[in-house]
Each structure stands twice: as structure tokens, then as C-alpha cells.
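User: Continuing from earlier, I have the next pair ready.

Assistant: Great, send them over.

User: Here they are, in order.

Assistant: Folding the first of the pair now:
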Amino acid sequence: MVRSKIAFFIVGTVISISVQAQQNLKLNYNKPAENWNEALPIGNGKLGAMVFGGAIQEHLQLNEETIWAGEPGNNVPKNTFDSIQKVRRLINEGQFEKAQDLTNNTYPRTAPKDLNYGMPYQTMGDLFLDFKGHENFKNYNRTLDIEKAISTVSYEVNGVTFKREIFSSFADNVIMIKLTSSKKGSLNFNLNASTPHLKKSIFTKKNQLVINGTSGSADNKTGKINFKTIALPILKGGKLTSTDDQLNISGADEVVIYVSIATNFKKYNDLSGNPDVRVSEYLKSALNKKYDAELKAHIDKYQKYFKRVSLDLGTNEQAKKTTDVRIKEFGNSSDPDLVALYFQFGRYLLISSSQQGTQPANLQGIWNYQLNPAWDSKYTVNINTEMNYWPAENTNLSEMHEPLFDMIQDLSVTGQESAKEMYHARGWNMHHNTDLWRITGIVDGGFYGMWPMGGAWLTQHVWNHYLYTGDKEFLKKNYEALKGCALFYLDVLQQDPSKKYLVVSPSMSPENKYFKNVSITAGTTMDNQLVFDVFNNFINASKALNLDKSLSDEIKSTLSKLPPMQIGQHAQLQEWLTDMDRTDDKHRHISHLYGLFPSGQISPFRNANLAEAAKNSMIYRGDKSTGWSMGWKVNWWARLLDGNRAFKLISDQLTPAPMESKGQSGGTYPNLLDAHPPFQIDGNFGCTSGIAEMLLQSYDGYLYLLPALPDALPNGSVKGLKARGGFEIDMDWKNSKLTKLTIKSTLGGNARIRLAKNIQLKSKTTFITAKGENPNEYYQVNSIKTPLKSDQAEMKGFAVRETQLFDFNTEKGKTYIFDVK
């Protein structure tokens, strides 16, 4: 055992403190939004709004998280097990086209009359403030302050300055709009609303503007979400009058408008809530506070989460320009501060769209202006929903993860129906989509929907949360979901034609095809990787809780029969069980790289050949793609320790998105939201996660400091990043070299550190050069099978830079400050 020395200092018990934020935490514009992709998002997890900031007309497009079309009920088709059995036989016989045809006939592209393919998330509607005589405005400024979660508007008309503050309160279920002017009696405007719902009524009552409505119907479901919205203005000075459907404010000094929305939704199978009572309670609670107290409570609760992490990458003259201009110029200029803003904007969006007790963030977070948005703005779980929550743990927002866990609990119940009815299996499963009603059947037909792996991927978040927090009570609460998921695959795995392996059949590599119009197959690489993780998660959870030893042993035996990963003829990581990959395939999904990220089955240090094969697969697919795909690629290149390529993908994403309504060109809208196109929020979260992965990784048995720092970001500091085992990391670097390091240990245990070889550490206290596996229970690495390699594959080698690896023991609640040279 080699002993060395390192300088470090132990500080007393860790106390939650706010860290100093970076210099520029505002999105800034010099003109009102002309369309939805220029408006600015605010939200408190439950209520969302897009703020347009017009001088002549302020427009707030409003959302409430439970306004979805339809009603309770699953979408599991009946009497399809025999067809699945026939498809399995056809696949084993190599009759892939026939297998696809049978799958398509069994599960048609359009939902049958007695079924549905999920319900759309729907807008509530729109609130408008119309200002007379404000046509000739000047000195206009519009911002979104993501340090305080407030949108502001200011401009001047005839020597009078008008200001607005708008926020969705984290303290109460209200959106608040404060209007002021520099001259008393200058606020004159009308307040009105609209909603696209067919069942609706808009009227005024007791100085309130009221919108009642019922959500839409779709496929075989009737809209049964009843909602009520109230906008209540409180005036200082001036006069409030009303017509049948409009409030009129004249001569006011100051106006605060309270907006509340409530529905009858209580749970996916319970619509017994009373929106009238709820909306009144929300308003009453907010009205009990003065505006300044409400604002302070809002900021305090928001900053409890947001200020845990700061990122400073330096600034320059670009930071003085408006955000839309900075996006346009990013590819041809140096603007490190925009990268930091983009990182923090992702954290802002997660806090604003996913709070404890709310629904999880959907394809558009909580922001949607349509009744029938793209892909229904529901939960697509073959990548998109999971990507939404990639930043939850490593950017220190664990609480934001809770709505996803609540949904998994629901799905572990509703998914028992699809497991039993469709597959004659125990446990639970789902396919590639769900919605407010927790459907688990196939969506969008056999070509896209025959992928029984949704639960396998979602449950990775449960185990990952445990690894970051060490919360055994949480693990106990969610253990049955992990167990049920493992039971399903224990029952459905089939022998492959070679009789060597157990595989999932039928399934697919999400949304991709290997022959013309053929996606259905067996034993895809992603499926094998997912089942590997499902089984290991259950085995490890069973051990941690001392439960189900005999079942754990059975699953260990089955685990050993899964296929290994394979390197194909093009030196690529194979996507399918047989070597069918094409070097000209540019598909947006590169699902077989799940094993590289978010899983940790492929490591440059442990299996260089697999890392090289993954890299080759990435090169064949190319960089430019949909926004979410490029977000995933940032994480992949970070895991491959190529910071420059990861940064290139960030640059590709931080280019202006086309205003077309559909396509695969990616990019970023003027409001910094991600484009598929159209808008999907996952790319924002993917890039935030990727930036964190460039700075810190903890998946491979150690904390790797600055593993993929790009040349474009040579100087900076980050505070509050989270690693597995409850470690919180602060780092400074200069000229691409670590200069300061602080590690806070919230759980105690062994800390294993990997960092660049050229870092010198002063010696005051002994530490141990690391050998063997990390004894910290949260850093166990699951051993994979030796990969198979095609005889035609020409491997060139995968080089990693020299690093050093050391251990030191930590105590729970202590902070360790290192002297780095």
C-alpha cells in the first residue's frame, strides 16, 4: 500500500449556504416578443406562463399542469398475446418483414376506435392587458431574471416610465403581475382573456375575470378535466369597472393582478377535486400577504434550490448584448458567459416545471400554447422524459426528481395490466409513452410503439437518486417498483435463435430501422443494457435492504445469460444483436449508446475498445440533429473525455433555431428554449447535464475532476455540483488546470479522486494511492461481460490522458479544503 500526503483542512458540520452567483443571470431583450418562441417562461411547477412583454398589449399564455384531454383509464389492448408469440417465432425464423407486418396489423398506426394512444397536454388559454396610447414607446427592456425567477418589462411613453414584474409564485399557487408607473394615475388598461377549449365560459364577477372550461376529448376518451381561472386586480388609486367579459382599469397608481388556476384533478384515477373551492383557497392564501412579502417568500423558496450551484466561466463584451443577438453570434464569437447562463437556465426550467407534489415535466415542461401540441406534449420515455431529469442529481436539485418518482409509483400499478394482459408476465411494464392518466399500452402503432422497455429506463432514476442521496427510506418506498420491473423481464426474456442468450423479444432500437420499414427485432443492444441495469439495480437494492435473497439469486443467474456488447465490422458498437449497422445511418436516436450515458457500462478506463467503438458510432451518426439528440451527444462526448467535441455540440445547439414547425435541425430559439423543432424542453436539460458532466463525473467508481474541460473554457469556477455518495464539489481552474478544490461530505465514507497527473498536492495529511475497487457502497461498478469483436473490426486504440487516483476517508458533515498546486 502506497502512502502519500495531501494538504487539506477539515471544517465543521456542513450547513446549507448560498453560493455567490455568476455575474449575468438574466435573459435580456430590447423589444417585445413577436411570437411564442420569443416569449419568456415562468413557472412554479404547477402554474406556467409565457410572458410576451408587449407595450401595447401584454400577453400571458397560461398553463396549469393537470389540464389534459381525456379521462381516467389505461390503453392496454386486449387479446394480443398470441400475436406477440407469433411475432417472436417469426423473428427467430428470420422472417423480419412478416414479423413487422403482423406487429403493425396487431397495433395499427392510428388508434382503434375502442383504444387511444395517449392524451394531449393542453393550454388553459391567454390573458391580455391592453394599453391605450402606448404605441410610441421607447427605452424598452424585457428580462427574465433566473436568479430570482422574475420576468420584468419596462419602457417609456411620453416621459412616463412603465414597469411590470411578473412571477409564478413558489410560495402560493398564483401568478402575480405588478404594474407601476413613474407618474401617479397613469395606469390605464383593459384586462380580458380567451381560451381555445370548446366547453368554456368567460365572464366578470365581483371585480374578477373568470374563465371556466373543460378539457378536450380525443380518441375513445371524453374530456373530463374541469378548470377554473380567476384574474383579480388590486388597485392603488384609480377606478375598476367591468363589462360582461372584461375588466377596465383607469387612473391607477399601481396594480397587482393575482392569477390562479385550479382543476378537479386529484390523481390519475380520481377527478373528485373542486376547482371552485381550490382556486378560492389559492387566492385567499396569496391575498393574506402583502405584495413585497409574497415576492420575498417566492424568491426565498426558489433560491433555496437555485443558489446551491454557481458557475462562472468568465465574461466579456458579448455579455452586454441582448440574448437573441448572443445566440446568433455564439458560433463566431467567444461568449463563455452564455454557456454558464445556458447551464443555469436549464436548472431554472427544472425548478420551474417540477416541484414536489406536482406532475413531472413533460415534453414541453409545463409550457404549451396548443390543444394538440407536437407529440401531445406528453411523456415520451424512450429518451425525452429521462433526459428532463438528467440534471436533477448532479446539479444539486434532488427534490425536483420527486414528481418523476411519484409517476413511477403510479405506473408500477397501471403497468401491471399491460404486463399481465399483453405478455402474461408478473410485475409491471410500459412502452414508450404515457400521460396524465398513466397509460402503459402501445402508442403510435407497432413500428414505433412495440418497445416494452419504458419502465426499465425510468426506474434507473430511482436507483440513481439513491446513489446520490443514500436515502434508505426512499429506497424502501420505491423498492417494489424496482422489484416489479425486474420480475417482468425475468418472465419475458426469450432464448435467441442461437440459444446462447436470453433477450427481449419483440422490441426495437427506439424508432430506428435495420431494413426498409422494419424496426421489430430481438435482443437490441439498448434492451440488453437496460435489462442489465434493471437486474443489477434490484440485486443491489435487495442487498442494501436485506430483502428477497432467493429472488436476487434467481435474477443473478438470469443476468449471466444476457448478451455481451459487441463491436461490429465497422469498429462500431453494434446497435442490434447481429451486425447490421450502416455507416451512413444518421438517425437521431443512438440508443445503443445508453450504456455510455446515462448508464455507466462503458468506461474509457475500464474498456477502451468499447469506448472506441462508441466513439466510432458517434462519428458515423454525425453531430447536427434534433435539439435533444445534440444534448445527448454533449453527455456522450463528455463521457469519452473529449471536451472540445462536447463543446462543439453545445455550439451547434446554441445556434438560432429555424422558425419552421417541424424538422430535425435542432438549435435554440431567441428565448433560449430548445428546438426539435418545434420546441421540446429536453434539449435544455440534456445540455445542462452535459456541461456538468464536462466538469465532474462520478459513475465509474471515483470522482473525476474536470474530466472533459474544453479549450474554450480555460478559466472558471463551479460551486455545489453533486456526486454520488453525497459529495458536493467546489472547484476553480485557471489555464485549464485545477487551482482550488473543496469537497463536502454529506454521508461520509471513502472519497476516491481522479484528477490530472500534472496536479501537485501539498502534503500535510496522508492519503492512499487507490487500488482495487472503491469500498464506498455508492461507487460500486457492475461488471460487464467481455465484449465480442468482429474479425473485420479495425481498432486503432483509445488513448486517455494520464491521471492519478487516490483515496481518503471522510466523515459525515465535514468539509475538506485542498491546497492545490
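And the other member of the pair:
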Amino acid sequence: MKILRFVLILAVMGYAGWLAWPLLSPLLDGTGVSLEGEGPFGIPVAALWIGAAVLYLVAALMLGAGNPRAAVAYFLGFVADAVLRLAIDQGRSAAPDVAARSGKPGDFQAQDAGPMSFPGEVSSSLGIDPTWLVLGVLVLIGVLVFVASRRRRRVRIPGRLAA
């Protein structure tokens, strides 16, 4: 179980870093980050993106500490990530209509979204939309985080010292 926990910590921290890289790389270069647009319910895209990355990091740290609430943090990060992915996917499919109506060359949702964007060839070669494939893998990792974060109750025999 310790090896599974260690692998999950590395996987979640790696994914959080990969997710946050489009936000961090412009800051390291000295340029500003321009994430414009709103996701569903008027939530800014930047808040969803930063929130998902931070919640994934918190979940990895909580899992490393053995906290059983790591699964809650992971699934909150997953919800923010799923909303962001679906908003970007919806914006990408509606991008020609938005550009035609507004006269703008494109907005955030129509532009490249870093790790959130997938080439069109991937969906045609797999036969499944990569957004749903990635979300399915993230749910599977979330279930593994839940299993690894559960505390095992040890039955103690009366009179025996705890190890």
C-alpha cells in the first residue's frame, strides 16, 4: 500500500505541475499571464485553472501525510478540472461561430489552451474524444487516491501494546 501511495503522490503532483505549467511559464519568462474569458456560471477561467492545480497539490500532500481527506481535495480539484476541460472543449467546438458573429479573431476558449488542448488527429485515431478519455483516467486515479487514503483499523487484542 505504501508503494501505491508513493506512485499516486508522484502522479498527482506531476499532473498538477503539468496543469499549472501554462500559468507558470510566462511568469518565469517575465511576461504576464493573460487568461481571459469565463467558464460556466461566470467563474473566471484563471480561477478554475489555478484552483484545480492547487487542489491537486493539496490532495497529493494530504495523501503523503496519510490524511483520509485527501480524496475530498482530489475530487474537488477534479470537479474544477472537469468544468475547465468541458468549457474549453465547448469553446473550441463553438469557436468558428463566435469568431464569425463577434468579428474578433478568437477569444481564450478558441485559442490554444496549453495542456488542455489536444490535436484533432487524436480524436479521429482513437475513435473517442480525448477529453472524456482524460477525465476517465482522472476518475480512476481519484478512486485509487480514495483507496490509498483510507485508514486501516487494526483490531487490538486486549492487553497487547500497539505497535
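Worth noting for the second one:
The chain has a mean pLDDT of 78. Residues 2-29 form the longest helix (28 residues).
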